[in-house]
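#data-curation
PF: Archiving a pair of folding outputs for the training set. Convention for this channel: one message per protein, sequence first, C-alpha cells after, nothing in between. First:
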Amino acid sequence: TISIENAVVDIDFGGQELLDWKSDAFREIARAAYRTRVSAGRFALYLLTGGINAFIVLNPTTKLWDQAPRIILFEEAGFTVEQFEVDGHKVILASKGELFLKIKEIIINTVR
C-alpha cells in the first residue's frame, strides 16, 4: 500500500457552500499527501489506473446517484469506498488499505 506521503489525491471540492470545513480538510490532506488535485471528480477514474491513489468527495451538494457509477467501479476493482458523516458533513472516500484509513483519520480529526 502506498503511504500518504507518496499519494496523489483527487478531491471533488464542490462550490463555496460550507467552505470552512472543506478548506480545513483540504489543507490537512494537502499537507500530508505528495500531491492533491481538485478536479470536481474529473480525475476520479484515474484511481483505477493508478494515476491517483485516493478520491474524496467533500462536495455537500453531490447526490449519491451521481457518484454511484464511480462507486461501483471502485468497489469492483477492490477499493474501499465509504460514505460517512463528520459533524454533519457528508464525505465519500475511495482508496485502499492504510491510505484509506489515514485519509479518513485526517478528515475526522480535522472536521471535529
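PF: Second:
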Amino acid sequence: MAIKEIVVAKYKEDTSWLDSINTFDKKTIYNKHDKNAENYLENVGREGHTYLYHIIKNYDNLADYTLFCQGDPVFHYHS
C-alpha cells in the first residue's frame, strides 16, 4: 500500500484543521515561528524553502505521495 504524507509550512497559523484529516499516513509540520517547536526551521525562503528542505532531508525515505501546503491553505483560496 502506498504511503501518503502531508507536509505543512507553518508560521503563526492555526493548524488544528489537520486533526480532522485522516487520509494521510504521516503529517509533518515545519514551524517557522516558535523556536521551541518540533521541526523548527528558520523563517527564510517562504514555503518553498520548507518544501525543498523536506525533500532534501528525507530524499532516501520520501513517502510515495506527498502533499505540500501552507499552514492556512484556505486563506489563499478565492472562489
